[in-house]
Amino acid sequence: MAWREEAARRAPRRFRGEVYWSRPLPAFGNPRARLRIVGLAPAAHGGNRTGRIFTGDESGNFLFRALHAVGLSSQSTSVRPGDGLELPGALLTAAVKCAPPDNRPLPEEFENCREYLVRELSLVPPPRVIVALGGLAFESCLAALCAATGTPAPRPRPRFEHGARHAVGRDVVYVSYHPSQQNTFTGRLTQRMLRAVLRRAAREAESLEG
Questions:
Q1: Residue 157: which CATH number?
Q2: Residues contacting residue 50 through CB under 8 Å, at least 6 positions apart
Q3: Burial zone of 155 (CB within 10 Å; 0-12 exposed, 13-18 middle, 19+ buried)
Q4: Are 182 and 57 spatial neighbours (Cβ–Cβ below 8 Å)?
């Protein structure tokens, strides 16, 4: 909590003078959609500034280009709430709801926020399709699904591997590298790679609708 507010007080020059959201971030999109996309946490000068997850930073720019390309987002850019952007076929959220120092949430932050992820998943009953963006989000999704359904963790435990698809009870989890600059600038994650995962997940979620 202290860090998210401190980030606003120490805003970089390009954002100086802006009024930061500086509160926990809610999910964004369609709460009734069977597709859930789960990231790690709000960026200190992205979602923590704008008040919308994956909005206002390079990770979000990369993600929304991919979402738009596969038909999940009404726009390819996400600037701020009220910009007309809609996600009719997905709900976008994060494992941790507040911006952490250095984008590295502590274990207790994951624990404190897990109940909110469980609630977001439980807005629709199984079967659901989840896209986990990054290894830590993947682990959080597995824990939240087990908590939401009251079932033990699957054995053998699913491994994090980009492009993998894991059945967890009646639900499915797709895996992608996180669209962080560390991954996108180095080519570890490309638009083609991310779009392929999102497209497969969207098609499976669409098959569950109705």
A1: 3.40.470.10
A2: 21, 56, 79, 80, 81
A3: exposed
A4: no
| Low-confidence residues in the chain, pLDDT < 70 | 1, 210
Provide the residue range defining the domain that includes 51: 2-208
Give me the DSSP letters along the chain.
-HHHHHHHHT--GGGTT-----SPPPPEE-TT-SEEEEES---TTTHHHHSSTT-SSHHHHHHHHHHHHTTS-S-S---STTS----TT-EEEESSSSPPGGG---HHHHHHHHHHHHHHHTTSPSS-EEEEESHHHHHHHHHHHHHHHT-PPPSSPPPP-TT-EEEETTEEEEEE----HHHHTTTSS-HHHHHHHHHHHHHHHHHH--
Count of domains in the chain?
1
- pLDDT at residue 1, rounded to an integer: 62
Which distant-in-sequence residues (6+ apart) come within 8 Å of 184 by Cβ?
58, 59, 62, 190
Residue owning tokens 């993600």: 63
Instruction: Supply the mean pLDDT for the chain.
Output: 94
Task: Express as a percent the part of the chain with pLDDT over 70.
Answer: 99
pLDDT for 62-120, tens place per residue?
A: 999 999 999 999 999 999 999 999 999 999 999 999 999 877 899 999 999 999 999 99
Tokens of 155: 């054995």
